[in-house]
Design brief:
Structural class: alpha/beta
CATH architecture of the largest domain: 3-Layer(aba) Sandwich
Distance between the termini: 52 Å
Mean pLDDT: 96
CATH topology of the largest domain: Rossmann fold
Largest sheet: 8 strands, mixed
Helix content: 40-55%
Order of helices and strands: EHEHEHEHEHEHEHEHHHHHHHH
Number of helices: 15
Low-confidence stretches: none
Strand content: 5-15%
Radius of gyration: 20 Å
Number of strands: 8
Strand order of the largest sheet: 3-2-1-4-5-6-7-8
Shape: globular
CATH class of the largest domain: Alpha Beta
């Protein structure tokens, strides 16, 4: 059984579940630090290409990967007996993946989620899903990693700063040191749910910012959407009992700014194409990688209706995505809402 409290940080055993662009980039970061990484890959062809060519040709093409990464299609190999398991799968398969992991995990394993989203049916965050499926599990063993971090820049070792959040300061600090490098700075945080809410809703706002850019509405409009989007992030966070200060940090305004403005953002790209006149079905047919904001929009919209909270930007994104509303109509609705105090 893993006893990470009795082992040096450098000798910890680590498995990574999920070999999309972000999972691959984080696996490579850890492998480059010297950790042998068992990487669970869903697709057989991706596993074989990593194995034979040390490259993820589907989700992170063009970047050589460390020899310390050992890809596997067997989830038991990736998670059994590990001190740390990092889970980086799309939010809509988190529950199924956690179920596959459950029987192979050791009770002392730290589970880190680097997935961003809110489950459609239950409206749980990813840590909520993990706790639900892996019950009984100590809440302190669940940790979230989030922040402004494009996978391509991380794999290129460009300077990046993120947060790891846990209800256990000890475990957050341990994970901080596991991931930290001179090019990947890690801060600790004690509000894991707040960090998750920030990481989820910023994707919805990024779609809105992309729609604005696709319509050619200018920089003023984009700045307004980002700023008012932060307000909506705080409102939703309050319903989860989070610390409002979290949203002024890396997983809040930091990730929001990056995802709403960076040309590597899949969610912003979806928005741009919607603004340019494409339908959601047309856009998704051309994408192999998941734009988390699409599914999260449904969760956030349903939450706002159930809880009676005002999330006008998120609600308009929902109408554009799932009710085929003309984006120009959404802009008009947002701009002509009842006038009020900024902080109401």
């Amino acid at each position: 059984m893993p006893k990470h409290t009795q082992k040096s940080i450098s000798s910890l055993t680590i498995g990574v579940v999920g070999a999309g662009s972000w999972g691959t980039a984080l696996a490579n970061l850890l492998a480059t630090k010297g950790y042998p990484i068992d990487l669970w890959v869903f697709e057989t062809e991706v596993k074989e290409h990593i194995e034979n060519n040390h490259e993820n040709n589907v989700f992170l093409p063009g970047f050589p990967l460390s020899d310390n990464i050992v890809p596997t299609n067997d989830i038991k190999t990736a998670v059994a007996g590990k001190d740390i398991v990092l889970v980086v799968v799309p939010s809509h398969v988190m529950r199924e993946t956690a179920g596959l992991m459950a029987e192979h995990l050791s009770k002392d394993t730290l589970i880190i989620s680097a997935s961003k989203g809110i489950e459609n049916k239950t409206h749980m965050t990813m840590l909520g899903v993990l706790k639900d499926v892996l019950d009984p599990i100590d809440q302190d063993k669940l940790i979230v990693l989030s922040g402004p971090s494009f996978a391509k820049e991380v794999v290129q070792q460009m300077p990046t700063v993120v947060a790891v959040a846990s209800t256990s300061a000890k475990n957050a600090k341990l994970v901080q040191h596991v991931f930290a490098t001179p090019r990947f700075r890690v801060y600790t945080n004690d509000d894991p749910v707040g960090v998750e809410v920030g990481g989820a809703i910023k994707n919805v706002i990024a779609i809105a910012a992309g729609i604005s850019d696709g319509l050619g509405l200018g920089l003023n409009a984009r700045a307004a959407l980002i700023t008012r989007g932060l307000t909506e992030m705080k409102r939703l966070g309050a319903c989860f009992g989070t610390d409002p200060h979290t949203f002024a940090g890396l997983a809040g305004v930091g990730d929001l700014m990056l995802t709403c403005t960076g040309n590597l953002s899949r969610n912003h790209t979806v928005g741009v194409q919607l603004g340019e006149g494409k339908t959601l079905d047309e856009i998704l047919l051309e994408m192999r990688m998941v734009a988390e904001g699409v599914k999260t929009t449904r969760s956030v919209y349903n939450l706002s209706q159930n809880l009676g909270i005002e999330l006008p930007i998120c609600n308009e994104v929902y109408k554009i995505l799932f009710e085929n509303q003309d984006p120009k109509k959404s802009i008009k609705r947002l701009m002509t809402r009842t006038l009020k105090h900024e902080l109401d």
